[in-house]
Amino acid sequence: MGLIETYRNNIARKKQEMANLSSDRARETKKIPDLKKKIISANEAISRTKSQSTVKSKLGEIQRAEKALADIDKKVASIDTKIASKDKEISNEEKKLRTEVDRAEKKKIDEEKNRLKESEKQMKRINDTINNHSRVQSEMQRTLIDLQSIPEKITVLFMASNPTGSMPLRLDEEARSIQEMIRKSEHRDSVKFETRWATRPMDVLQAINELNPDVIHFSGHGSDTDELVLQDAEGSPKFVSKEAIVQTMMTSSDKIRLVFFNTCFSYGQAEAVVEHVEAAIGMNTSIGDDAARIFAAQFYSAIGFGYSLEKAFEQAKSALMLEGIAEEKTPELCVKEGLSARDIIIVRP
Question: What is the pLDDT of residue 145?
């Protein structure tokens, strides 16, 4: 039984006790007129009689009636005290009842507020889940669209130049290592590797127009003034400016996604060319023959496994460290503004 019901039962019981006291009081006060009537009647009898025995008898009746009246007054006073006390008890119980009713009402209101708040939270969780599902679905859809836009087969155009009079480079070893690592990759049939040797400036446009490549790889020498060192008809060095390279990329196939300058001091060229292609790799200083070969081979191996450009680049740096070649900070990856290397995948995995 709750407190409210207890207080209500207490009030009902005390009110019944109050009613009983009132009945007792009424019953006692009802006797008073008869007793007063007896006293008046006895006084009248005394005034009419001369008999001493009658007088004595009537005085006795008066005395008994007055004593009964006094007893009644005493009982009524006691009952009035009990009624007053009971009235106070009822008032206290009613106060407790009001307090408990207010408390219960407040608790009910608070519970309703909490229920509404929890319901709002639940609705928010549901909406968040729906929105999250929508976002995931949108991301999946975008991923599918992106994957569909990624070619299943790509062509890597490897252009090498080692003019007479320049430091000899083992460019054939670099090409062989790249081809070997591509053959070992999971998607080896998806990467077509084409080589061009003793590259002259005009050979660049000719090869691009012939092969329509996805990746262009320059291997050889570079100058510290942002120039690519190719060769002329006599095999002597032919310096090609950064601006010429950028113009070539701008006017070439829009299929080109990556330009790899595996030449010394080529960071400026890579940085400039990403205005027209998604990404480029260049060297911020000179790079050793072994470092260039190992870095390039591992890079294309990771591409052949369908990894992102970022992962392929980082794995290539790791390969240098594993071989104990302290040139892992020489290669630099440049990405077109608004793109992320993490999201660029060259061949569909």
Answer: 45
Q: What is the rounded CA–CA span in Å between residue 177 and residue 221?
A: 19
> Is the CA virtual torsion 251, 255, 258, 259 positive or negative?
negative
Whole-number Å distance between alpha carbons of 110 and 253: 70
Query: Which phi and psi (to 5°) does residue 304 adopt?
Result: -65, -20
- What does the DSSP 8-state code read for residue 106? H
Give 234-279 pLDDT, tens digit per residue.
Answer: 999 999 999 999 999 988 878 999 999 999 999 999 999 999 999 9
Three-state DSSP state, 326: coil
Q: DSSP secondary-structure letter at 271?
A: H
Tokens 């790791």 belong to residue: 318
Question: With contact defined as beta carbons under 8 Å apart, do 319 and 178 qualify?
Answer: no
**Distance of alpha carbon 226 from alpha carbon 208, whole angstroms:** 22
pLDDT tens across 191-213, in order? 999 999 999 999 999 999 999 99
| Phi/psi at 251 (5° precision) | -95, 0
Nearest to 95 by CA among 210, 206, 10, 195: 10
Is residue 283 within 8 A of residue 261, CB to CB? The reply is yes
Q: What's the CA angle centered on 152, arms 151 and 158, to 5 degrees?
A: 75
Reported pTM: 0.60
Helix residue ranges per DSSP H, the chain? 3-29, 32-48, 52-149, 171-184, 201-211, 242-251, 267-273, 289-304, 309-322
Which residues, including other chains, have CB under 8 Å from residue 285's CB and lie 6 or more apart? 264, 265, 330
- What is the model's pLDDT at position 174? 95
Give 225's DSSP letter. Answer: T
d(CA 240, CA 224): 12
Cβ atoms of 277 and 258 closer than 8 Å:
yes
Q: How large a percentage of the chain has pLDDT more than 70?
A: 95
Give the tokens for residue 39.
């006293």
